[in-house]
Specification:
Blueprint: E1 3-10, E2 20-27, E3 31-36, H1 42-49, E4 57-62, E5 66-68, H2 81-85, H3 88-98, H4 104-110, H5 116-127, H6 146-159, E6 164-168, H7 176-188, E7 192-196, H8 200-203, E8 208-213, E9 216-221, H9 224-276, H10 281-318, E10 340-344, E11 351-354
Parallel strand pairs: 3-7, 3-8, 5-6, 6-7
Antiparallel strand pairs: 1-2, 1-4, 8-9, 10-11
Length: about 350
């Protein structure tokens, strides 16, 4: 199973700048994370996959049925488990028919899906064992834990027959237990998962990372840590290339200076010979003309080498990435001791900073 992008171009304004331009690549790993700077087009890529957006040119094709995980897990306080699974209309029609209804609308609602109740209970038992109870479908969704809500929404994707699940920042606003439940649900998903996320713990459960950078797309095998390690290796190599190019430029600049100094000395010698009339005027003129051409040639070659070295340095510097960094402003020393300032979730433990802490 794979998602194929062929000569994909996309712009929100057909006459404006393109976000993607003639991209061809494939997403084939069972679990793929999409990363990139804010505004690089990560969420747009998901919308192109599920056809919420259409390419400006090119195509996107998937070998399976695509569905997106709901970000608003509770759309209403009146939602039931059946509502979250998207089966309420069919269950209501089924109950009406069981009660004797012969209305065409009820039969159309079921659409030959007569075992919908059994299938719904089966996916609940599979994905949310804690809810594998009798008569769970009418249960108010507000009584579920955050983790159960997350697992239930993934179960809904399977129930509708999705083989490709799209998740856009799925762990936003989830507590630690709910995040853990989502991580487990993603790992147990039997189809293909494509995730846009900043959650390192989730990205480290991926089989591949797709990076969007300056409009280009690259695929890295392995999880997020492997991706970062590859970037670090490339960055070190790029920086070494810059250092070597800068050293070469300095060398060529010194050589050019040596050439200019040598030419100046030869010119002084020639002037002395001319002043002392050590050769016939015709010979002196020929020698001067030849020397001038020689100096011009050497200076031109030296200048060309300097310019070539400068271009190589510029090209090397262009290959050094200007990745985003986190900058934390200075904290007001007057903040009360013990007041929580920030909590950063981690794969092993959370990092909590509070007033009075020293780092």
């Amino acid at each position: 199973m794979s998602i194929q992008f062929t000569n994909l171009s996309f712009a929100f304004d057909p006459l404006g700048e393109r976000l993607f331009d003639d991209l061809t690549f494939t997403i084939s790993a069972p679990r793929t994370g999409i990363v990139g700077r804010n505004g690089s087009g990560k969420s747009t890529l998901l919308k192109l996959i599920d056809q919420t957006l259409a390419p400006t040119s090119g195509s996107v094709s998937s070998g399976g049925r695509v569905a997106r995980l709901r970000q608003d897990l509770l759309q209403s306080q009146d939602d039931t488990v059946a509502d979250l699974l998207g089966v309420s209309p069919k269950l209501e029609a089924l109950r009406a028919i069981e009660a004797g209804s012969i209305a065409e609308a009820h039969f159309d609602a079921i659409c030959d899906d007569w075992d919908i109740e059994a299938r719904a209970e089966a996916v609940i038992a599979k994905h949310v064992p804690s809810l594998a109870l009798d008569d769970v479908l009418p249960r108010p969704a507000t009584t579920l834990s955050g983790g159960e809500l997350v697992q239930l929404t993934l179960a809904a994707l399977e129930l509708e027959g999705a083989t490709v699940a799209l998740l856009d920042e799925p762990t936003n606003n989830l507590d630690r237990r709910s995040r853990a439940a989502l991580h487990a649900a993603v790992e147990s998903w039997s189809g293909q998962v494509v995730v846009v996320s900043h959650d390192v713990a989730l990205l480290n459960r991926m089989d591949a990372i797709v990076e969007i950078y300056d409009g280009a797309v690259r695929t890295f095998g392995g999880n997020f840590d492997a991706y970062r390690a590859q970037l670090a290796t490339e960055a070190a190599a790029a920086e070494q290339t810059v250092r070597s190019a800068a050293q070469k430029l300095r060398q060529e600049q010194r050589e050019r200076q040596h050439v200019q100094t040598a030419m100046a000395r030869k010119e002084q010698v020639g002037k002395k010979w001319a002043a002392n009339k050590r050769a016939a005027p015709i010979a002196m003129h020929a020698w001067a003309e030849k020397s001038e051409k020689s100096r011009a040639g050497e200076q031109k070659r030296a200048a060309a080498k300097v310019e070539e070295a400068r271009e190589r340095l510029s090209a090397a510097e262009g290959r050094v990435r200007d990745d985003d960094t986190i900058r934390i402003p200075e904290i007001d020393p007057g903040i009360a001791r013990g007041r929580r300032l920030v909590e950063l979730p981690g794969s092993n433990r959370d990092l909590v900073m509070q007033g009075g802490d020293r780092w």
